[in-house]
Write a structure and sequence with these properties.
By secondary structure, the protein is mainly alpha-helical. The chain is built from 11 helices and 2 strands. The chain folds into 3 domains: about 35 residues; about 100 residues, Cytochrome Bc1 Complex, Chain D, domain 2 (Orthogonal Bundle), CATH 1.10.760; about 80 residues, Cytochrome c-like domain (Cytochrome Bc1 Complex, Chain D, domain 2, Orthogonal Bundle), CATH 1.10.760.10. The protein has a two-stranded antiparallel ribbon.
Length: about 290
């Protein structure tokens, strides 16, 4: 004879027969939809276990009947991408720089490749936006120390500036004050005269006329009679109010006193030709390419 089921008088629900300190447990079974979902998941897991890699072993794992490998699939995708990049990279190496700009497919590849290479190799000095820092040129303007054509930019990237490479740019700003070429008053006067070329304010009590004489005797050979600079020598334009190390009177006097000689590394032995061309195209596109 079956045991009589107890029904809770208040809720009208059967109890499980369990009781703790006078509290009786009601029998609320899980909904059928939940149970069926649970059973389906169990069945699915068994099928997955049989077909796919799933269980770790001591030195390996179960391969499954399908022999599927996500790692192998990723490897195939990476290999396909590398093959596609190699094909476009070869086309980039074979193309002239001017021709890249006129080929939409090559230009798109060069821009994407150049942007990535810039972030990896150049942003540390020039900034992620290529706006530069003190001593590191802004690549977005139209003032170039060594020239801003595609070929000139590529040349600078390849061999650098004062990098030790035989083909590097090597022009220096001499230390006129430290080496005794100019005395303190002459340094002050010529610095003030240089600032006046771009509308800047010089030092208190400076003699601009004397500064002009000092400039003509010592500076025009590199910067030119009008101070417009010379890209072949790496002599910057002094009339545009764009300053690599700062345009205050103190900074300009420091430059004349002790000289400047920033270094850009040569990338010819670090980056392949496709990457260097991509960088040249990307930098040229930033807004200041000539």
């Amino acid at each position: 004879m079956a045991a009589k089921k107890e029904v809770d008088a208040i809720s009208g629900v059967e109890t499980t027969g369990h009781e703790w300190d006078g509290l009786k447990e009601l029998n609320h079974p899980l909904p059928r939809w939940w149970l069926w979902t649970f059973y389906i998941c169990i069945i699915f897991s068994v099928i997955y276990w049989v077909l796919m890699p799933s269980w770790p072993l001591l030195s390996d794992y179960t391969r499954g009947m399908r022999g599927h490998s996500q790692r192998a699939l990723v490897g195939e995708e990476v290999a396909a991408l590398q093959a596609a990049r190699a094909e476009k990279g070869t086309a980039l190496v074979d193309a002239e720089l001017d021709a890249i700009n006129s080929n939409p497919d090559l230009l798109q590849f060069a821009m994407a490749n150049g942007r990535a290479a810039f972030g990896d190799n150049c942003a540390g000095c020039h900034g992620t936006g290529a706006t530069g820092f003190v001593g590191f040129p802004n690549l977005n303007d139209d003032e170039w120390i060594w020239g801003g054509t595609l070929d000139q930019i590529r040349q600078t990237i390849l061999y650098g500036v004062r990098s030790g490479n035989d083909d590097a740019h090597t022009g220096d700003m001499l230390a006129f004050g430290r080496d005794g070429v100019l005395d303190a008053a002459q340094v002050r006067d010529v610095a003030s005269f240089v600032l006046s070329m771009s509308g800047g304010k010089g030092a208190e009590g400076a003699d601009l006329a004397n500064g002009q004489v000092v400039f003509e005797e010592n500076c025009v050979a590199c910067h030119g009679d009008a101070g417009a600079g010379n890209q072949e020598l790496g002599a910057p334009n002094l009339t545009d109010n764009i300053w690599l190390y700062g345009g205050s009177i103190e900074t300009v006097m420091e430059t004349i006193q002790n000289g400047r000689g920033g270094v850009m590394p040569a990338w010819v032995d670090r980056l392949d030709e496709a990457t260097i061309k991509s960088l040249a195209v990307y930098v040229h596109s930033l807004g200041g390419g000539q």
